[in-house]
Amino acid sequence: MKDLPLRYSTTAIVLHWLLAVAILASLLVGNFMSDLSLSPLRLRLANWHKWAGVTILALSLLRLAWRLTHRPPPDVPMARWQQRAAHATHWAMYLLFLAVPLAGWAYSSASGFPVVWFGVLALPDLVAPDKALAAGLKALHALLAYLLAALVAVHVAAAIKHHFVDRDGLLARMGLGGKRP
């Protein structure tokens, strides 16, 4: 473990923060637009939300590939149950980084609205148009998004606890919080 760096690589840190911003923005926009009636604003936000979702999916695949091919820094000392909870939460978030956009893409396809990434690249429909399927996929997309939001909140709360209560330098691994002790 001595030879491992104390911080994640610059690539891992950049991907982490890009995804954090994109996911937070997409969750906020998705939640906001769901309360709007059909209007030009809702259509613009829906397109932005789809573009963000496809971008999140692509960045998540890149981040997962990076994570699987690059060793992370060693865990900071903590109770075994905390290590297990942290690892389970991280892998559950990776799963949801993929599942939420895929469910949204499938919902859009089932609704008969194609996904055109940034208005330029038409993506294939994942399923054929089907109103009943669309309703189920809409509910699934929302459920998975709320589950992701809850896990992100737990992730942030744990990072804050480690920084302010444990003072163990955990945030420094992701480029925040000063030097690791």
How would you sum up this structure, described in words?
- The protein has 181 residues and is an all-alpha fold.
- Helices cover 67% and strands 2% of the residues.
- It is built from four helices and two strands; from the N terminus they run H-H-H-E-E-H.
- The protein has helices spanning 10-34, 40-69, 80-110, 131-166; strands at residues 116-117, 121-122.
- The chain has a two-stranded antiparallel sheet.
- Strand 1 and strand 2 form a beta hairpin.
- The chain is elongated.
Poorly predicted parts: none
Shape: elongated
Mean pLDDT across all residues, rounded?
Answer: 93
- Strand segment count: 2
What is the topology, as strand order, of the major beta sheet?
1-2
Category from helices, strands and their pairing: mainly alpha
Order of helices and strands: HHHEEH
Tally of separate helices? 4
- Please compute the radius of gyration using only Cα atoms: 18 Å
Name the beta content range: under 5%
Biggest sheet statistics: 2 strands, antiparallel
Summarize the structure in short.
The protein is an all-alpha fold and 181 residues long.
Characteristics of this structure?
181 residues; mainly alpha; two-stranded antiparallel sheet; 2 strands
List the helices and strands and how they pair.
Layout: H1 10-34, H2 40-69, H3 80-110, E1 116-117, E2 121-122, H4 131-166
Antiparallel strand pairs: 1-2
Helix pairs in contact: 1-2, 2-3, 3-4
